[in-house]
Predict the structure of Multidrug efflux SMR transporter.
Amino acid sequence: MAYLYLVIAIITEVTGTVSLKASEGFSKLYPSLAATISFIICFYFFSLAMKYLPLGLSYATWAGLGLVLSTVLAVVLFNENLNLTGIIAIVFILIGIVLLNTVGVSK
């Protein structure tokens, strides 16, 4: 269940971040509400995940996958640019997350 909680936290964090961008500084009602609600849900499920997973592992996974997914959605939804250096950085983040979750941290 811990990883399910973490996945929900990551998805809602990314939803909140994308909604925050779409809210244009909280000037648009529905994206602003979506961001606020998403972040509340995110932190609730993140706190549940951290009851069962080590802090370093849960935070690195949450932040890393949130960053990767947010970057991909920024390119797709907001036409932001991603150069080769950014792609390489994302690959390293993903490698780090996989290593951390398979051999890096134990509770």
